[in-house]
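Researcher: Quick test of sequence recovery. Tokens follow.
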């Protein structure tokens, strides 16, 4: 079977009724298996109503759900970069699953920003206990603050967002990336999982599209002509 037939078949499976019914339970099962295997806690999904969060942006935040490891690796493996030059920053890092997955890549540093103290404390515990022989980055931290006002480090970065906020907040964060890159041009990538508001990048002065899949988009900072 050639690759276009394979991708058509995958698309048909994704659109099927059975797949849609099973998607949630399979996603949960994979999450619990990840936790069991690595001795961490990145499950279950949590709605923000269940958490005490001291931020006016609480109502603009989505639920907590950890990134699906397979999708994460597919996107990371497609990035043609020297990881050791880059700071990986997860905006809305929850219990830290994406941080742990990023530690399989030799990033210079990995930072997660999460505004729920409860989720942040679980992430810190996970960082301490994550067991993986192949861990390639050991400089990991979870920071408890509002990701929409995080001061961006002026260094080559991979900004990771697993659909953390509503359209309005997402738009304001993208505009803050653009301002920062205009002031200090540097290499930067945005990885956007579940990219429901991807159109906010259209006509962006700072980013151009690099890759797009069913579950993600990647945008790269434009370099001067
Ligand atoms: C879909 S989860 C993603 C978790 C993690 N990035 C991962 O991929 O495993 C989104 C997270 O964003 C957090 N969040 C939403 N709005 C936020 C804000 N303004 N500042 C910091 N965290 C926020 C939520 O609490 C939730 O944990």
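Model:
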């Amino acid at each position: 079977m050639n690759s276009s037939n394979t991708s058509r078949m995958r698309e048909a499976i994704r659109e099927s009724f059975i797949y849609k019914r099973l998607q949630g339970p399979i996603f949960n099962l994979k999450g619990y298996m990840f936790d069991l295997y690595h001795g961490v806690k990145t499950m279950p999904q949590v709605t923000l109503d269940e958490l005490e969060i001291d931020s006016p942006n609480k109502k603009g935040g989505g639920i907590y759900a950890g990134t699906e490891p397979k999708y994460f690796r597919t996107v990371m493996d497609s990035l043609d970069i020297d990881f050791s030059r880059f700071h990986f920053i997860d905006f809305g890092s929850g219990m830290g699953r994406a941080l742990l997955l990023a530690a399989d890549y030799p990033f210079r540093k990995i930072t997660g920003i999460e505004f729920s103290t409860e989720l942040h404390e679980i992430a810190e515990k996970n960082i301490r206990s994550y067991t993986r022989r192949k861990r390639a980055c050991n400089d990991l931290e979870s920071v408890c603050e509002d990701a929409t006002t995080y001061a961006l480090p002026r260094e080559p970065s991979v900004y990771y967002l697993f659909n953390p906020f509503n359209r309005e907040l997402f738009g304001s964060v993208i505009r803050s990336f653009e301002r920062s890159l205009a002031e200090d041009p540097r290499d930067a990538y945005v990885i956007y999982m579940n990219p429901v508001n991807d159109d906010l990048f259209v006509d962006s002065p700072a980013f151009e599209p690099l890759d797009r899949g069913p579950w993600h988009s990647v945008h790269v900072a434009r370099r001067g002509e």
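The mean pLDDT is 92.
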